Amino acid sequence: MNGKTDDQIDQEKYRAPALSKGLDILELLASEVDGLSQIAIAKQLNRNTSEIFRMLMVLCQRGYVEQREEDDRYQLTTKMFEVAHRHPPIRRLTSIAGDAMQRLANEVNQSMHLAIIHSGHVLVIAQVDCQDNNITAVRLGAQINIFDTASGRVLAAWMDQDALDQLMNDVGKEPTDKYQAFLDDLPMVKEAGYCESQSLTIAGVLNLSAPIFDFSGKVVAALTVPFIQRLSGTSVASVDECRERLIDVTKDISRRLGAGAHS
């Protein structure tokens, strides 16, 4: 007897070290805004630089990673984001929501973005601008701290306790004041059916966010308008009008995704 459990034996049997190293690099770079050098990657992953170099060369050749000329740091390209969009549920969601978002943006003269939960962050999977010259927009593909967003509150408010506990485990409890404020907001968001709150990152922006449900009754995305008051130029819908139209559009997108079919 070697003292190993069946699970440990299976894990050793199906190990793929090269694949694991490549995934480790991708996951590490995904959390680094400014990229990392080869030496820094090796140090953080506790690997020698030669094996990291080989993996980086393959990832660069496949288009997942690129090396900046100015400082030789490695950073992710958008390929992982592009691959994720080929996943049928996300592709269907963005396909259904895209035209409706653009029509609403033009109607209320505000930009907006569609977001999901990914690895404990809010991930922006679609973004549209209005036709005005001056806009406030969130970058497509941005990963944002869930505590700082109206989208995050909407995405979490309808979760059952097990899912919410898992999300909080992924996010972490620091800083504690933001953690508790986030949890305290969820019942009010669910009761209202949307989230309306001043931006925690940009002064003067009022975030309006509403849920999109799928056929199972689960919230799969949040559609958010970072509402700004314009002092001149093209007229803009009021906050009340924008909120009402946002909720109407999210209900329509939800219906097209099959929401209500489970009831």
From TrEMBL:
Question: Record keywords: Membrane included?
Answer: no
Question: Which residue positions does the secretion signal occupy?
Answer: none
Residues annotated as domain HTH iclR-type: 16-78
The keyword Aminoacyl-tRNA synthetase appears for this protein = no
Q: Which PROSITE patterns match?
A: HTH_ICLR, ICLR_ED
The protein's UniProt keywords, in alphabetical order, are: DNA-binding, Transcription, Transcription regulation
Q: Which residues form the IclR-ED domain?
A: 79-259
Q: What is this protein called?
A: IclR family transcriptional regulator
| Organism name | Thalassospira aquimaris
